[in-house]
Sequence to fold (190 residues):
Amino acid sequence: MQENPNATHLDPEQQETAAAAAPAQQVQEEELGLPNLSDEAVARIDALEQELAALKDQYLRAVAEQENLRRRAQEDVAAAHKYAISKFLQEVLPVKDSLEMALMDQSGQFDNLKFGVDLTLKQLASALEKAQVRELNPLGEKLDPHHHQAMSMEESDAEPGTVVRVMQKGYLVADRVLRPAMVVVAKARG
Fold:
């Protein structure tokens, strides 16, 4: 029998310990259902475990990134809701400024005040138009319950169901009713 030059020499006590451990390891492998694995198989298992760990890391990073994107999107939506009115307010603030200047005018001339209020109303109408706010003034139109709120009825020569008086104008934002027009509707003379 030829001795392997690369083999490690064990003293007799170590040989006994190794001999006793070998059957115990073999019993443990058999209990786990593990066959005796070659070095190549062990290397393959190690490589697969490393690949599994890398994929698990990629997965966890992707989940974290998805959560960050979801959170950022929620923050963006919240900010959009919170500041959506800002552009409109930039259009309305000059109207407030004009009204304040009209109140501070001490000239006492009614014509100047009326002119200033007319100008201010035009500023406000322009700001509302830019915000896609349209006025509903349905005088003479048929009652539309989607856009009008009938407050009362009065006898009139107009066709029954027609708006004969507007108590308060209504408004639309784009095509959605912001406030219905409060109206008085015609009924037949009795």
